[in-house]
Write a structure and sequence with these properties.
6 strands, alpha+beta, elongated, two-stranded antiparallel sheet, single chain, 143 residues, four-stranded mixed beta sheet, CBS-domain, 6 helices
């Protein structure tokens, strides 16, 4: 199973902000959309990713002043990316090894989506359940 199969069942697109967006705006988007990260884009080009973890760390350091910081100051620049053709297992490995929860998807040089660790885990569980069902069918058919 590839990331393409995950993206097929997710709403098209992704949520992004400009590098000069204030953290207060980002927090409102995260809360409104029930998401854990936004992509930071400049003229359609991925320049970073800003997660709720980044916001929490900044709040711990700066207090309420963190809400006036811009996205570019907190984002992870040049985040790891993947193509839709990599396997779910490869994506899980990248995310686990890199200790991040969101993976931007680039296809033909263009940002096309975002998958979360939740998306990947769900896909792996569904794949395992399908394999178990296939084995049950096989065993029941040969008994």
């Amino acid at each position: 199973m590839t990331l393409k199969s995950i993206l097929k069942y997710k709403p098209a697109g992704f949520i992004s902000v400009a590098p000069d967006a204030r953290v207060s705006e980002v927090v409102a988007i995260l809360a409104d959309k029930h998401i854990g990260a936004v992509l930071v884009t400049d003229n359609g080009k991925l320049v970073g990713i800003l997660s709720e973890r980044d916001v929490v760390r900044c709040l711990a350091e700066r207090g309420v002043a963190a809400l006036e910081v811009d996205a570019a100051s907190l984002m992870t620049s040049n985040p790891k990316t993947a193509t839709p053709d990599i396997s779910v297992e490869q994506a899980m490995g990248m995310m686990t090894d890199g200790r991040f929860r969101h993976l931007p998807i680039i296809e033909n040089g263009k940002l096309t989506g975002l998958v979360s660790i939740g998306d990947v885990v769900k896909a792996m569980i569904e794949q395992s359940q399908q394999e178990v069902e296939n084995l049950r069918t096989y065993v029941a058919g040969t008994a």
